[in-house]
C-alpha cells in the first residue's frame, strides 16, 4: 500500500492491523523506521504485534533489557540536558519502538526516567528506571542525542551502532571550555545593562559584578552549598556594586548595573521548560520545575532586598530615581545589546557555534517586538507574551528546517525579555515600606516571567496548527540485526 494519511482508509488497512502485519496506525512518520530484526527472518514489529495477541513473545529476554537500557540512557541525557518531559517521553518511545518494543509505558519526572513493558500471558513485566542526579544544560549534546533518535527511528542505525553513537556523544568534550561559559554569563550581564540604557561604564560594572557573583557561587557550590544560597549571594554582590556606585556618587547609571545582573541570573531556560511541561499536560514535572524557578527568583529577590535594606538603613540614598525607564522606540545600542544577550545565553548553555548568528537575530527580533508593543502602551505581561509568541513561532520553524530541537533555537532568544527592571523596582518599593505597590510590581514581574514561557509554547503550537505532523501508514522495512545472537 502506498502512503496514506489520517485514519485507516479501507479494509486493506483493517486486515493488516488485525493480522499484526504492517505498522500500527499510531506510528509517526519519523518513528516508523524499522526496528532491528530478530535474526529469524521475521519482521520484529509484526512479531511483536502477534505476540501481544497471544503468540510468541520475542521482546522478553536479554534483547528487551538492552533496549530498555538504551532508551533510558537517551531519556536521561535529554532530561539532564534541559529538554521537556514531553520530548523526553517521545524520544524514549521512539528508541524502544525502533528496537523491538512498540508498546512501552514511560514515566518522566524531574529527577528520574522510567520505562516498563508489559507482555501478555504469564511472563513478568520488564521495568527499569534511571535517576537524573545532575541537570546541567548542554544543548550541543541535546542536539546530538536528538539526531541519534531520528536516525534510529528512521532505520539507519543498528542497535550496536546506536550504543556506540551514544557512548561517543557522552564522551565528547563540551562545545566551550568552562572559562568561556563564565565570560559569556558576565557578557550577558553587561549586555543587560546596555539593554536598559546603560553606557560603557555601566556595562563594565555589570560585567565585574556578574563574574564576581558567579565565581563566588561556584566556589560555594564546590563546598556543597545549595543553589538557593548561591543565587542569593550572586544577587547580593550585584546589588552591593550598585550600592557602592550610589554611595560614592560615581558617574555611572547604577540602576542599569543591578538590572543587568538580575537579567543574567533569572533562570530563563527552566522557566520556559516549566511552562511547556505544564501546558502540555505533564503537570507533576511542570509544577516541580515551576516551583524550582520560583525558589530561584525568591533567592534573587532575597539577595537584592537584604543588601538594599542594609544600605538604606545606613543612609545610602537609594530610590526609584536611579531606575531606568522602559524604551519606547527601537534604538541601535539596545537592539545590539539584545543580540549580545541571546548569543551569550546560548554560549552559556553550550549551543553550537553554527546556531549563534540566528540566535542573536532572534534576540534582537524579540526585543524589537517588545519595544513596539510597549510603545502601544500595552502592559508588560501582554507585550512580553506577544514578543515571546513571535519568537516561539519563528524559532520553532527555523528549528524544523535545521533538524534540531526547538528549545535550542528559542530559549536563548527570550533572554532579553526577562523582567529584571520590574523585579528590582519591586524590591525597592518593599525596602521603602510601600508594601502594596511592591506586591503589585512583583506580581507583574512574575506574570511577565510566566508570559514568556506561555508565549513560547503558544508560538510552537501555532506552527503545529499550520503544519501538523503527518501520520503515515507504510509497510515496515527491514534492517540488519547488529545485536549479538
Structure write-up:
It is built from 18 helices and 5 strands. The chain is mainly alpha-helical. The strands form 2 sheets. It has a 3-stranded antiparallel beta sheet with strand order 2-3-4, with helices on one face. A two-stranded antiparallel sheet has the order 1-5. The longest helix has 32 residues, at 435-466. The chain is elongated. Residues 1-42, 51-59 and 470-485 have low confidence and may be disordered.
Cα-based radius of gyration, to the nearest Å = 25 Å
Overall average pLDDT = 79
Strand order of the largest sheet: 2-3-4
Low-confidence stretches: 1-42, 51-59, 470-485
N- to C-terminal separation? 33 Å
User: Number of helix segments?
Assistant: 18
Number of strands: 5
How would you spell out the order of helices and strands?
A: EHHHHEEEHHHHHHHHHHHHHHE
Share in β-strands: under 5%
Described by strand count, sense and barrel closure, the largest sheet is:
3 strands, antiparallel
Task: Assign an overall shape.
Answer: elongated
Helical fraction equals 55-70%
Structural class: mainly alpha
Oligomer: single chain
Give a quick rundown of the structure:
With 485 residues, the protein is mainly α.
Layout: helices, strands, pairs:
Elements (H helix, E strand, L loop, with lengths): L3 E2 L5 H9 L24 H9 L9 H19 L4 H14 L5 E5 L3 E6 L8 E6 L7 H15 L5 H13 L6 H18 L4 H23 L4 H21 L6 H12 L2 H13 L2 H31 L18 H17 L7 H20 L4 H23 L3 H5 L9 H12 L3 H32 L5 E2 L12
Antiparallel strand pairs: 1-5, 2-3, 3-4
Amino acid at each position: 500500500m502506498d502512503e496514506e494519511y489520517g485514519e485507516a482508509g479501507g479494509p486493506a488497512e483493517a486486515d493488516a492491523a488485525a493480522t499484526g502485519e504492517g505498522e500500527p496506525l499510531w506510528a509517526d512518520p519519523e518513528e516508523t523506521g524499522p526496528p532491528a530484526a530478530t535474526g529469524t527472518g521475521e519482521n520484529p514489529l509484526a512479531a511483536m504485534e502477534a505476540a501481544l495477541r497471544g503468540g510468541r513473545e520475542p521482546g522478553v529476554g536479554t534483547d528487551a533489557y538492552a533496549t530498555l537500557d538504551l532508551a533510558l540512557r537517551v531519556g536521561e541525557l535529554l532530561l539532564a540536558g534541559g529538554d521537556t518531559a514531553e520530548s523526553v517521553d517521545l524520544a524514549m518511545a521512539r528508541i524502544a519502538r525502533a528496537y523491538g518494543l512498540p508498546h512501552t509505558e514511560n514515566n518522566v519526572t524531574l529527577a528520574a526516567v522510567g520505562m516498563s513493558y508489559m507482555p501478555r500471558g504469564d511472563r513478568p513485566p520488564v521495568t527499569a528506571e534511571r535517576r537524573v542526579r545532575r541537570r546541567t544544560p548542554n544543548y550541543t549534546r541535546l542536539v546530538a542525542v536528538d539526531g541519534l533518535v531520528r536516525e534510529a527511528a528512521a532505520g539507519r542505525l543498528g542497535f550496536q551502532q546506536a550504543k556506540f553513537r551514544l557512548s561517543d556523544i557522552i564522551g565528547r568534550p563540551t562545545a566551550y571550555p568552562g572559562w568561556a561559559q563564565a565570560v559569556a554569563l558576565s557578557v550577558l550581564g553587561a549586555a543587560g545593562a546596555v539593554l536598559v540604557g546603560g553606557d560603557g561604564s555601566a556595562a563594565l560594572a555589570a560585567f565585574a559584578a556578574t563574574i564576581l557573583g558567579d565565581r563566588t557561587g561556584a566556589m560555594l557550590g564546590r563546598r556543597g552549598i545549595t543553589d538557593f544560597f548561591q543565587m542569593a549571594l550572586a544577587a547580593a554582590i550585584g546589588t552591593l556594586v550598585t550600592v557602592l556606585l550610589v554611595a560614592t556618587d560615581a558617574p555611572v547609571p547604577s540602576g542599569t548595573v543591578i538590572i543587568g545582573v538580575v537579567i543574567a541570573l533569572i533562570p530563563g531556560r527552566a522557566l520556559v521548560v516549566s511552562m511547556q511541561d505544564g501546558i502540555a499536560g505533564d503537570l507533576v514535572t511542570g509544577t516541580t520545575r515551576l516551583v524550582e524557578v520560583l525558589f530561584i527568583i525568591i533567592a534573587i529577590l532575597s539577595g537584592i532586598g537584604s543588601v538594599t535594606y542594609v544600605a538604606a538603613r545606613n543612609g545610602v540614598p537609594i530610590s526609584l530615581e536611579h531606575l531606568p525607564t522602559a524604551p519606547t522606540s527601537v534604538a541601535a545600542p539596545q537592539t545590539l545589546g539584545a543580540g549580545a544577550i541571546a548569543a551569550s545565553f546560548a554560549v552559556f548553555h553550550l549551543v553550537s557555534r553554527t546556531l549563534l548568528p540566528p540566535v542573536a537575530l532572534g534576540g534582537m527580533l524579540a526585543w524589537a517586538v517588545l519595544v513596539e508593543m510597549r510603545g502601544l502602551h500595552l502592559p508588560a505581561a501582554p507585550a512580553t507574551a506577544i514578543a515571546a509568541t513571535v519568537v516561539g513561532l519563528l524559532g520553532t520553524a527555523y528549528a524544523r528546517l535545521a533538524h534540531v530541537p526547538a528549545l535550542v533555537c528559542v530559549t536563548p532568544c527570550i533572554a532579553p525579555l526577562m523582567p529584571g527592571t520590574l523585579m528590582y523596582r519591586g524590591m525597592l518599593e518593599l525596602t521603602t515600606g510601600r508594601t502594596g505597590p511592591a506586591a503589585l510590581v512583583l506580581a507583574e514581574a512574575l506574570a511577565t516571567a510566566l508570559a514568556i514561557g506561555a508565549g513560547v509554547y503558544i508560538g510552537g503550537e501555532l506552527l503545529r496548527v499550520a503544519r501538523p505532523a503527518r501520520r503515515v501508514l507504510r509497510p515496515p522495512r527491514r534492517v540488519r540485526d547488529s545485536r549479538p545472537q
